[in-house]
Specification:
Structural class: alpha/beta
Number of domains: 1
Number of strands: 7
Strand order of the largest sheet: 1-3-2-4-5-6-7
Oligomer: single chain
Shape: globular
Helix content: 25-40%
Strand content: 5-15%
Distance between the termini: 22 Å
CATH topology: Rossmann fold
CATH superfamily: Alpha/Beta hydrolase fold, catalytic domain
Number of helices: 9
Radius of gyration: 17 Å
């Protein structure tokens, strides 16, 4: 933990050569990345972002704009730019990570790498309006994507409790409009599932249009939350891309 409500450090590392900042998916929280922090520490200083409106920040108002979230988070990351920073985001988190990367580069600090997981390229649009659905419709969506803990999905009371943050996050994603501007200069590595209903291969490959740097696409078996089943492979990829060759924690 830190004194910053936006920043979570589950396994603080003061002497790691690089940092990895992780951005949760819609309805997700920082604790989604606890296993990542445990596995990559102490080789990498892992930081998870905690959006308002969930867990210990449940009493705070949600932020339903990708741009506003990126503005706030980029400012909170400035004090951490004394070491190279890689960004990892899944689904909605990939969009926020991308916009944070743009702000970092504009400010003169290029990310080491942007990892965009489970999300189509920022310039690829779909007419999605799930944030306008009924509570039951949102619950059905969550269950179909299987990204929420099974214990939560089976508890109607908890599900209803997290719906405001889920709806706000869906609004942020579905109302996002990509603004023209300079391409990124950092490498972009995209991770996607071969059966993800939210991302086609064309939409995943289109991330290459958003950087002047190297582009890599990694395809894994699975749906939208393929990352849960292939976490070990994804963490090896992160470790190798960050230039860290020390063994993963057991």
């Amino acid at each position: 933990m830190s004194g910053d409500a936006w920043i979570r450090r589950f396994h603080p590392v003061s002497d790691a050569p690089t940092r990895l900042v992780c951005f949760p998916h819609a309805g997700g929280s920082a604790t989604f990345y606890f296993p990542v922090s445990r596995a990559l520490s102490p080789a990498i200083d892992v930081i998870a972002i905690q959006y308002p409106g969930r867990q210990d920040r449940r009493s705070e108002s949600c932020v339903d704009s990708i741009g506003e979230l990126a503005d706030i988070i980029a400012a909170h990351l400035e004090p951490l730019a004394d070491k190279p920073i890689s960004l990892f985001g899944h689904s909605m988190g990939a969009m926020i990570a991308y916009e944070v990367a743009r702000r970092m580069e504009k400010g003169g600090t290029a990310p080491l790498t942007l990892f965009a997981s489970g999300r189509r390229a920022p310039s690829r649009y779909r007419d999605e309006r799930m944030h306008l659905a009924s509570d039951d419709g949102l619950i059905t969506e969550l269950k179909s994507l299987s990204g929420t803990d099974s214990a939560v999905l089976g508890d109607e009371e908890i599900l209803r409790m997290i719906l405001p943050s889920v709806r706000s996050d869906y609004k942020a994603v579905e109302t996002y409009q990509h603004q023209d501007g300079p391409l990124l200069n950092c490498p972009v590595t995209v991770l996607t599932g071969d059966n993800d209903p939210m991302v086609t291969m064309d939409e995943a490959e289109a991330w290459a249009e958003h950087t002047n740097g190297p582009f890599d696409l990694k395809v894994y078996p699975g749906g939208h939350f393929f990352i849960n089943e292939h976490a070990a492979a994804a963490m090896r990829l992160i470790r190798e891309t960050a230039g860290v060759r020390t063994p993963l924690a057991a």
